[in-house]
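Table 4 source record.
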Amino acid sequence: MKKLILSLCVALSLTACDNKKADETANAEAKPEVNIGITLPLTGDVSDPGQTNKKVIELALKEFGDTKYKYNLYFEDDMTTPKKGLLNATNFINIKNVKAMLSMWSPVGLVINPLANKNKVIHMTCAWGYDVAEGKYNFNSSTSLESQVNLLIEKLKKENLTNVAYMVVNTAGCEEQSRYAIPVMKEAGINFTDIQYYNPTETDFRMLISKMESKHPDYYVLCGIPPSSQIFTQQLQEVTHQRNITSVDTFFEMDPSAWPLVEDLWFVNSASGTSEFADKLKSQLNETTKSCSANLYDAAHLLIWAFENAKLEEGEVVPNTDNVIAKLHEVKGYNGATGSDLWIDEDGILQSQATLKKIVNNTLVDVEE
């Protein structure tokens, strides 16, 4: 009888433990859910940063540990094409019922922008320019054009490189950069010997380079995307036998296999990540910092933080997007992956500073002035 009673007690204890675990699981599953759609280039010519940034966003969520809400991340591939990005965003809104979206680069960010505003869905991206952040529901985690171009001007003038040829790919981000940069640079005393726009599918620049060379530029400024940016840089060196070229971010966004083309050449780099963030990626993900990695980490981190801390209205189980946006605009003095003392301005730009960088032995390093 004693053995029977003991067995029953053990059985009841185990049942109680199982019930407790089941209750904990049920409670976790019962958390109000927040769906977030993420569209990235996961295949194609620029899939490398897209694949890394998928892991980065997942890491940002994981680091929060226990949260008030259950965050469902839905990843889709856009191959950096506006059509695919728009389709992904439409499906996120209409099928997944997302509260927020993340994207990278201007071609996709710009087509999502009006959709986010129309449907009152928060959209955070990493892209050149201001247009991508237009409207209440859009944010850009990227260094401002003003910071980028001012530093470019400062360096060119310091090196006495005041006659430049400007090469611009026909994509939304580079076109916006050129619209902003050209008048500002002219006013600062930079003379353009030539300004050329080219299609991203272009593969032979030799005749164009010869034409541009006839006007004797001191230096070339390139705004491009891979693989055409890599092809132009290689052919420029083959035709001119010089390495007189710089960029805003373009070098960093080349495939790492092409980095030897720009080894030891200075360029303007948007805030692309602190050394501490790079160490984190290496130790936790065995990854190196890629284009938009630090920016999307900050965007994802701040987005989740805002949901966790936004005001709940009566009857709500998750905060409405207007209250989350209000919380985002409270961000001041944030120490993130892209730097310290960051803040979100009234236009939805996460303010950070451009720096001068170069690539040495496949590593991004500061330019010593």
